[in-house]
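Fold in tokens:
===
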Amino acid sequence: MVLGGYALGVGFVLLALALILWWHGSMLAEKTGLPNGRILYTDAGNAWISNDEPLYDPHLRLVGKPDYLVEEADGMIVPVEVKSGRAPEQPWESHLYQLAAYCWLVEVEYGLRPSHGIIQYKDRAFAVDYSDELREEFLDLLTEMREDIFEAEVDRDHNDWNRCARCGVASACTQRLG
């Protein structure tokens, strides 16, 4: 009788521990901004899932490594891009096009067009519709970028000195602000 009570007590302790761990895991998952589903791909430094191969479209010669690809219960594959900074009022245009590129690559690699993708900033997430309009704007931008490769000098497309200060080619730029 004493042994049965002891086993019952241990069982309750294990059940309580399991519930605490489940709750803690749920809170961590919510903080990541990832949708519910199975992680198919990660480039976020997760040691459990290693993806060395980027997504690739040979026709457009486009390569990308989204932070996460999550397969939802309905089979939809959602690209997630994680940003380390605080969220702006609306996602930055460059982040929208980066996400659109990942949506395009999912469409090519998996044969499924995502309905949306997610941009997860430090303090907020944005679900972004992968609309026909965003898709076309992305493809137009890619064409424009490829045309600019052959230009001797490309004009700066902004007036943001902060952006210039963080630019990787600032030292060689003749149009640098500040």
Remarks:
- The helical segments are 2-32, 93-110, 132-148, 161-165.
